[in-house]
Design goal:
Two copies of one chain form a homodimer. Chain A has 361 residues and is of the alpha/beta class. Chain A contains nine helices and 13 strands. The longest helix of chain A has 21 residues. Chain A starts with 15 loop residues before the first strand and ends with a helix. Bound molecules: NADP nicotinamide-adenine-dinucleotide phosphate (2 copies). The site of one NADP nicotinamide-adenine-dinucleotide phosphate has 28 residues of chain B, from helix 1, helix 2, helix 4 and helix 9. Chains A, B: One of its GO terms (molecular function) is aspartate-semialdehyde dehydrogenase activity.
Chain lengths: 361, 361
């Protein structure tokens, strides 16, 4: 294990550790931290012993990656965790015990009653209510819709959500992206594929991390099997939406489907509110909401699509329609980059919220 | 114009005309008629004057295509129309005036109060109630779900549907399929595409019949713009479901989205019923329903996907779950081949229903 580089606190600004700096989310995090207003003193990059000694760039500086250990949290004020669930489960409490605030991107603590689940545009105050010294970042599918729904909830009060997802391959990490690209290369150029049952499956062979071919197909499955035939991903959308919005009785039924898109999750949402809605007012609420872009002019074919949204920060909303049956219901189509707002960006925003406490001191 | 080949009624069986025999749906129709129990006497193939004289195979025979004209319906008992709306609007009444029963696959007559909209597994009796001598075939998106929903409706009585579609390129005809294949060829092999806003759009250029790239993307639009921001396709799902099920007050909100699949539409459905539902009973109802295949064992990754369903006749249903909030609601995922049951097959089934009247005489 290499010796820890010394921490040089700059201007009394807080020190940040990024655990999992070498991963898919960690890589986007370094990119995001290099472009946002810099609130950080020192930054320490942490990963597995496999990556120790590796050099990565952030904020224009080259930093050495250190192996995860108790000492790695020495002097750290805020520690982001972009690592698998079991690594977070073990190490976020260690960071907290060393006095750092842990901001965790994994699923390890999201439903822990003593860990807030924070989306800065929706429930920023919850970031201060962290008895375990840990704050959780929601799942990417929930994050791709919740900023827009939070804005509508403030206006109309949510009662029920029916959600269908169009989830990108990168939600299954880099192996998902690699599998999709390989599959597309295999089906390209063949002008008969997709016309006979099983023909795509035969040409693709190994389906990678997905339970069926993804090229020229859609796959109604993400996550693991839970009671009643629900997938873990569908229950995350339900449980996390309830927790973030502070609505434990919110009715939520989701069906999660993977589509052949690299990055950016899309969702259709049928949202029922306590009060009557109005199309123009709902559009105005969304247009004004921080973190949301309204893209809704179907007469000019303007609606969000993953190809136009990927790589951007906001939640994009279009196809805003008032239900034809229920004056209290809206139907929407939303897109959000699952690696940015869906993961690294929201974690960075939470860490910046906590950083304000340090500068306020 | 070539002279009409003589009609030789075989065994007194009815004579069938296929108007639009050279088109995408017409081609599948010839294939379907060649494999189903043969109830037909003579078959006459009709298309535009451009195709007159062309020879096509059906039931192992080679037949000459004749140009559409009033005389072309001479001696015809049942005339299927697989042509654009405006051609059906003009010519189906002509066929009816000549004494044929017109079975129309276009959108021209679907919502006409004097034209029944028939799905043989759901409302076969309506086929006899045809004051104009015309019977309509539903839109492919509605047809991809309605047989399964009809079975559940008979058991539990439908009250509300929230539908999201994952529609295939061939719903936009052969130009849609060609555009998707060209786009996939353009994006294949590039390992950076789909990671920056607009990169896929730039490589694809012309998006063909779709309002945005379809490869590596999903597009929340199908049809034309109607009041309130709804698309014509979304209103078809609503209005046709109500008419077929005989439920003018059924609550239906749909969001229609195109996905990069060649053929076979998929749908998620949140269905609310008048009575309490049970997952196992609902699965049994679907498993027993004619025209439906239950494919629902997520523990073994068994659920329908377009790649496995394309080219088959039934409506496939999986992911059957009882709502976690409402004991009267089910969530489902369905797939149906939009060119078979979604178009040609259902038309053939309607025509066969009418043919029974001839043999009963
Ligand atoms: N992909 C998404 O859309 C998404 C969205 C939201 C949340 N998340 C969550 O974010 C977390 C990271 O996901 P990812 O896609 O970035 O995964 P990833 O690409 O596999 O990266 C995993 C990171 O964790 C590190 N790591 C693994 N085992 C470790 C150990 N024992 N000790 C220390 N470091 C270890 C790896 O370091 P080495 O490089 O040294 O192995 C790497 O930096 C996961 O919990 C995931 O569920 C992902
Ligand atoms: N594609 C689908 O998923 C789908 C599903 C359900 C229903 N439909 C409906 O089915 C109908 C046919 O669709 P398609 O996709 O098969 O269209 P298509 O491939 O464009 O075929 C059109 C057919 O109509 C004929 N035709 C066109 N103009 C004509 C005219 N003036 N007189 C006589 N014949 C004429 C064409 O004959 P020539 O070859 O001689 O031009 C051809 O046989 C449309 O109403 C469509 O909306 C399509």
């Amino acid at each position: 294990m290499s010796a820890l580089p010394p921490l040089n606190r700059r201007d009394g600004r807080p020190t940040l550790a990024i655990v999992g700096a070498t991963g898919a989310v960690g890589t986007v995090m370094l990119d995001i931290l290099s472009t946002r207003t810099d609130v950080w003193g020192d930054i320490r990059l942490i990963a597995s012993p496999r990556s120790a000694g590796k050099k990565l760039r952030v904020r224009g500086e080259e930093l050495e990656v250190v192996a995860l250990s108790e000492e790695a949290f020495e002097g750290v004020d805020i520690a982001m965790f972009d690592v698998p669930d079991e690594v977070s489960a073990q190490w976020a409490p260690v960071a907290a015990a060393k006095g750092a605030v842990a901001v965790d991107n994994s699923g390890a603590f999201r439903m822990d009653a003593d860990v807030p689940l924070v989306v800065p545009e929706v429930n920023p105050d919850q970031a201060k209510n962290r008895p375990r010294g840990i704050i959780s970042n929601p799942n990417c599918t929930t994050l791709s819709m919740i900023v827009a729904l939070g804005a509508l909830h403030r206006e109309y009060t949510l009662r029920e959500l029916v959600v269908s997802s169009y989830q990108a391959a990168s939600g299954a990490g880099q192996p998902g992206v690699d599998a999709l690209r390989e599959q597309i290369a295999k089906v390209a150029g063949d002008t008969t594929l997709g016309t006979q049952a099983g023909d795509v499956r035969r040409v693709i062979g190994d389906t990678g991390p997905f339970p069926a071919p993804l090229a020229l197909n859609v796959v109604p499955w993400a996550g693991s099997l839970k009671d009643g035939g629900w997938s873990s991903e569908e229950l995350k959308v339900r449980n996390e939406s309830r927790k973030i919005l502070g609505l434990p009785g919110l009715r939520v039924n989701a069906t999660c489907v993977r589509v052949p898109v690299v990055t950016t999750h899309s969702l259709t949402v049928h949202a029922v509110f306590e009060s009557e809605v109005d199309q123009a007012r709902a559009q105005a609420v969304l247009a004004e909401a921080p973190g949301v872009v309204l893209c809704d002019d179907p007469a000019n074919y303007e609606f969000p699509t993953p190809a136009d949204v990927v790589g951007t920060d906001p939640t994009w909303v279009g196809r805003v329609r008032r239900s034809l049956d229920d004056p209290n219901a809206l139907d929407l189509f939303l897109c959000g980059d699952n690696l940015r707002k869906g993961a690294a960006l929201n974690t960075a925003q939470i860490a910046e919220l906590v950083a304000e406490e340090f500068t306020e001191r």
